[in-house]
Amino acid sequence: MSRARERRERVLEHLTELHRLPLGGAPDPVFRERLRADLVSGRVSAELLPDEPVRLRPAHRRPPRRRPLLSRLTAFGLSAAMMAASFATYQAVPGDSLYPLKRAAESALVGLSTNDAARAERELRSAKTRAEEVASLLGSSNGGPLVGKTLKDMEESTRAGITRLRRAEPRSPKIKKFARHQKEVVGPMLRQLRRDQLAQAEGYLDYIEGLVAPG
């Protein structure tokens, strides 16, 4: 495997793990340490940093022995900053400045998937994330106008994921498992939705019910 491909796969792996975090969650210590180690070693940073490295002018008469320490401290700082940025991005909800970046990362994960089964699972994971975001918006004073758009995005991701999964794995048990999960998350929201939003959510639940029904 080429070094470039290995770096791309490491980036994809880290993005996937961050994407699995629920809203309000945090990376576990093992993941944080592995990401820090990869960044310090240079196995991941080459994919995420600009193609042309920034060349810093060395300080006048700086003793050579300090350079390795400075490099390590710089790499550690970059690691911490990138971890913080990645975590903030995946905790963003509709209306946040980082939310478009979060959606772009999700789309990149789908596009990097190697087959329909993997694409389907990422689409369905996105649908679960949209459901969590709706719940978060309902508890926010200024989230009302964004609820309808997020419900629409949730349904689109669901239908795309289910279509791909049925094509890749007919009668997959993952479909009913996903549908039951979404019913549990979306159902309790109904009493908090406006009339137009309620119609959207009920239509979604009707679709979900058809996935759970025996057949």
Q: What is the strand tally?
A: 0
The helical percent reads over 70%
Integer-rounded radius of gyration: 21 Å
Globular, elongated, flat, extended or rod-shaped: what is the shape? globular
pLDDT averaged residue by residue: 75
Q: What are the secondary-structure elements, in order, as H or E?
A: HHHHHHHHH
- Low-pLDDT stretches are 44-56, 78-84
Helix vs. strand class: mainly alpha
Helical segment count? 9
Main β-sheet, in a few words? Answer: none
List keywords for this structure.
215 residues, 71% helix, globular, membrane, transmembrane helix, DUF5667 domain-containing protein, transmembrane
Describe the structure in brief.
The protein is an all-alpha fold. The protein is built from 9 helices and no strands.
Question: How would you describe this structure to a colleague?
Answer:
This protein has a domain at 90-214. Residues 44-56 and 78-84 have low confidence and may be disordered. By secondary structure, it is mainly alpha-helical. It has helices at residues 3-19, 29-41, 45-48, 67-90, 99-112, 116-138, 144-168, 173-186, 195-212. Helix content is 71%, strand content 0%. α1 (3-19) packs across α5. The protein is built from 9 helices and no strands. It comes from Nonomuraea mesophila. InterPro entries: DUF5667 (IPR043725).
Write the layout of secondary structure elements.
Elements: H1 3-19, H2 29-41, H3 45-48, H4 67-90, H5 99-112, H6 116-138, H7 144-168, H8 173-186, H9 195-212
Helix pairs in contact: 1-5, 2-4, 5-6, 6-7, 6-8, 7-9, 8-9
